Amino acid sequence: MRVAVRAAIPRAFRLLDVDAIEAEVQAGNDRSLAVLRDVGMGPIGERMVFAPARGRDERCVVLEVCRPD
User: Fold this and answer.
1) Global pTM?
2) Residues 6+ apart with CB under 8 A from 51
Protein backbone atom coordinates (compact mmCIF):
# COMPACT_ATOMS: atom_id res chain seq x y z
CA MET A 1 0.00 0.00 0.00
CA ARG A 2 2.83 2.39 0.81
CA VAL A 3 4.20 2.03 -2.72
CA ALA A 4 0.82 2.80 -4.26
CA VAL A 5 0.22 5.85 -2.06
CA ARG A 6 3.74 7.18 -2.66
CA ALA A 7 3.12 6.92 -6.41
CA ALA A 8 -0.39 8.38 -6.28
CA ILE A 9 0.35 11.58 -4.35
CA PRO A 10 2.75 13.21 -6.85
CA ARG A 11 0.52 12.17 -9.74
CA ALA A 12 -2.53 13.64 -8.04
CA PHE A 13 -0.74 16.98 -7.61
CA ARG A 14 0.27 16.92 -11.29
CA LEU A 15 -3.21 16.04 -12.55
CA LEU A 16 -5.44 18.00 -10.16
CA ASP A 17 -5.47 21.69 -9.43
CA VAL A 18 -5.26 21.33 -5.65
CA ASP A 19 -2.91 22.71 -3.02
CA ALA A 20 -3.42 19.84 -0.58
CA ILE A 21 -4.62 16.25 -0.47
CA GLU A 22 -6.61 14.99 2.50
CA ALA A 23 -7.29 11.48 3.70
CA GLU A 24 -9.69 10.29 6.38
CA VAL A 25 -8.96 7.16 8.39
CA GLN A 26 -11.05 5.59 11.12
CA ALA A 27 -9.43 6.46 14.42
CA GLY A 28 -8.60 2.85 15.35
CA ASN A 29 -7.07 1.91 12.00
CA ASP A 30 -3.43 2.09 13.07
CA ARG A 31 -2.03 0.38 9.97
CA SER A 32 -3.66 2.84 7.57
CA LEU A 33 -2.59 5.76 9.77
CA ALA A 34 0.99 4.45 9.65
CA VAL A 35 0.93 4.23 5.84
CA LEU A 36 -0.29 7.80 5.48
CA ARG A 37 2.22 9.15 8.00
CA ASP A 38 5.03 7.26 6.27
CA VAL A 39 4.25 9.02 2.98
CA GLY A 40 4.37 12.46 4.56
CA MET A 41 0.78 13.10 5.54
CA GLY A 42 0.21 14.82 8.87
CA PRO A 43 -2.85 14.96 11.10
CA ILE A 44 -4.97 18.12 10.91
CA GLY A 45 -7.93 17.08 13.04
CA GLU A 46 -10.86 14.71 13.35
CA ARG A 47 -14.35 14.61 11.86
CA MET A 48 -17.32 12.33 11.60
CA VAL A 49 -17.52 10.58 8.23
CA PHE A 50 -20.25 8.29 6.92
CA ALA A 51 -18.91 4.73 6.49
CA PRO A 52 -21.13 3.06 3.86
CA ALA A 53 -19.97 -0.47 4.71
CA ARG A 54 -21.09 0.04 8.30
CA GLY A 55 -24.09 2.22 7.54
CA ARG A 56 -23.17 4.83 10.13
CA ASP A 57 -20.98 7.81 10.90
CA GLU A 58 -17.51 6.99 12.23
CA ARG A 59 -14.98 9.23 13.95
CA CYS A 60 -12.02 9.65 11.59
CA VAL A 61 -8.60 11.20 11.79
CA VAL A 62 -8.00 13.67 8.95
CA LEU A 63 -4.50 13.84 7.49
CA GLU A 64 -3.11 16.19 4.86
CA VAL A 65 -0.13 16.64 2.62
CA CYS A 66 0.46 19.98 0.88
CA ARG A 67 1.72 20.53 -2.64
CA PRO A 68 5.49 20.88 -2.62
CA ASP A 69 6.79 24.29 -3.66
Assistant:
1) 0.86
2) 26, 57, 58
